[in-house]
Every structure is written in C-alpha cells, then in structure tokens.
Amino acid sequence: MSKRLRDNLNSRYFEAANALTSKNARHRIVAYVESYDDIYFWRTVLSEFENDKRYFEVMLPSKMNLTRGKKSVLMNFLEGEPLGKDMIACVDADYDYLIQGRTQQSRRVLESEFVFHTYVYAIENFQCYAPSLHNVCVSVTLNDHRIFDFRGYFERFSEALFPLFVWSIMVYRNGNYPKFSITDFNRIADPGGFNVQNPEPSIANVKRKVHTKINDLQRQFPDAKEEYLKTKEDLKELGVTPQTTYLYIQGHHLFDTVVSPMLSKVCNLLRQERQNEIYHAAAHRTQKRNEMSCYENSLQDIKVMLKKNTGYMVSEQFRRLQEDIRRYLSPLE
Q1: How far, in Å, CA of 204 to CA of 327, rounded?
Q2: CB hemisphere CA count around 298 (13 angstroms)
Q3: Which of 108, 117, 190, 250 has a Cα-to-Cα distance from 325 of 20 to 30 A?
Q4: What does the pLDDT look like over 92-133, one tens digit per residue?
Q5: Separation between Cα atoms, residue 76 and residue 137, nearest integer Å
Q6: What one-character-per-residue DSSP string does 101-124 give?
C-alpha cells in the first residue's frame, strides 16, 4: 500500500473526511479541473447546485507538483476508480466526446459517471458563444450599438467548415489523424483578413481552403464515402449542426485566432463611435477632456471580458452539462 497521501487521495478519503464533520455541516464535494482558467468556469457551473447541505470545492489535481491538464486529471484519479460521490473530475470534451470511445481516454470521459465534460470542445468555445458576443463588446466599449451580426457570421463560418470538420472527426475515429491533424484543420479554419463592413470575403476564403483540402482528402481516401456519410449523421445525432461547428473546433484556436481579432476590430469601431459622440456633444474643451478621460478609464480588455463571459449559459450544450450534474446529484439528495 502506498504511503503517499496523493496515492490514497480518492473519493473514500473525502467521504471519510465528511463523516468526521458535524452533522449540520455542509457536505463537501471536490471537483478536479485541468487548469487555472477552468476553475472560474466550473465554479459558475457548480454554484447553481450548492445549497445548505452541500458545496463544491474546485481545484487542480495536484498542489505538490503543479501537474495540470486532462491527462493529469484522468490518469491520477481514474486509475483504480478513486472517483466517487465525494470527488469528481471536470474536463474539456476536446474530441473525446465526438469520437465516441474510440480511444481509452475517450472511454474514460464518456463512461465514468463521475467525469463531467463540456460537450463543446473546451471552455473557450463557450466563452465565444456567438449570441453572447455583442454583450462582450458592450462590456468592453460601453456602446450598445449593434454594428455586426455575430450570430449570422458564425453560422456561415460553421457551414463553410462543417464538411471538412466531418473529415477531421472521421480520421480521428479511424486512426488516420497523422494525415490530417487538428493543427492542419486549424490552418484552414483561419478566416484571415476580417473586415467588419464586408465580412463575406473571409467566409469565401475559408470555403476555398475547405474545398481544396477536401479534394486532397478524397484523393487520399477514395473509398471513404460511406464512412464519411455515417460520421456526418453520427455528428448530427450528437448535437453538431452545420451552423454550430465553431463550438466543436479547437477552443484556443477559436478564441485567439478567430474571435479575439474580430472583437478587436468591432470594438475599435464602437470606441471611435462613442469618442466621436463625446467630441461633438461637448460644450467646451474642458468638458470634452473630462468626458473623454472618464470614458477611456471605463474601457475593458477584450480577452479579460471574453474569459468572464457567461452568456453561454443559455446554450443547449451548457444545459446538457447541467443535466448531467443533476443526474449525478439526484441519488445524493
């Protein structure tokens, strides 16, 4: 038997710790997550389920060696089934949800009743939930003028990517991913130069790259049509639609390469618009200087506000995550 505390740190340990507390004390459930950024996200998820009988403590899997990441969460705490009603794991879905148990890690994520995943690729995809992006712009610029249709753009962006995304999932399911990796997909999923007033060329650029790559893949895999069509139907059954593909691509790529640069350009226009209003409305130079200073001091950083965005909580994917947690808590009531 191991003498190290970490090797014996499992659900039974926390169950025993809970048993030593007062009968009137709230029951503690430890939730292990992958990284520092995940702590705030999963805190917002789990807070709704706290009451006078239970609470969650969200933490990284190791305070001893600063180990992070999904593999750390799953390998450290699923070996020997240490998870249980007092200790859960909360991870990004990545491709593990969509490849449906084709790898050992995917099976662990999907089959354990004490592992919860995001359904979308990662928490960044939730933060970039298109219907909520206007509100992010308002929080950054304090200007509520809708100058760009984020929902419409990401529907068209997703439709352009969907045929190639099916290929991506297919090759990850059948083990051919070295011939078409997520990194390869991300290069194609970069819209390039984005113009707020004329966004269609960026969509056309993605469509062109998708078409070229699909032709290449069809030459590499000439007999893949039946498998492709089956994968396409499977993805739709799992909740992926041509209009929501952006929620299932790599989260960091979506956040850093697609959404953040786009919001930067939209927010710059909104700032300029508000500054022009102040400039023309000010009665004299001192008032203009004071108003401009007050406004500029109120502006926020785009990436910071994106990370604090909780507009995704109305999404279907987030509601599915909530329902999983309700099922887990139901026997504990």
Answers
A1: 43
A2: 14
A3: 250
A4: 999 999 999 999 899 989 998 899 999 999 999 999 999 999
A5: 40
A6: TSSHHHHHHHH-TTEEE-SSS-HH
Residue 276 has a pLDDT of 83
Q: At what angle do helices 260-281 and 133-141 cross, to 10 degrees?
A: 40
Q: Are 161 and 247 in contact (CB under 8 A)?
A: no
Structure tokens at 133: 């992006």
- Comparing 35-49, 75-89, 97-111, 181-195, the range with the smallest average pLDDT is 75-89
Structure tokens at 237: 């059954």
Question: Which of 243, 74, 93 lies closest to 169 in space, CA to CA?
Answer: 93
Q: Give me 267's structure tokens.
A: 């927010």
DSSP per position, 256-320: IIIIHHHHHHHHHHHHHHHHHHHHHH-SSHHHHHHHHHHHHHH---HHHHHHT--GGGGSHHHHH
With beta carbons less than 8 A apart as the criterion, state whether 55 and 302 touch: no
Give the tokens for residue 312: 């995704």
- For the record, the structure tokens of 314 come out as 């109305």
Structure tokens at 111: 């089959």
Mean pLDDT, residues 162-179 taken together: 97
Q: How confident is the model at residue 76 (pLDDT cuts 50, 70, 90)?
A: low
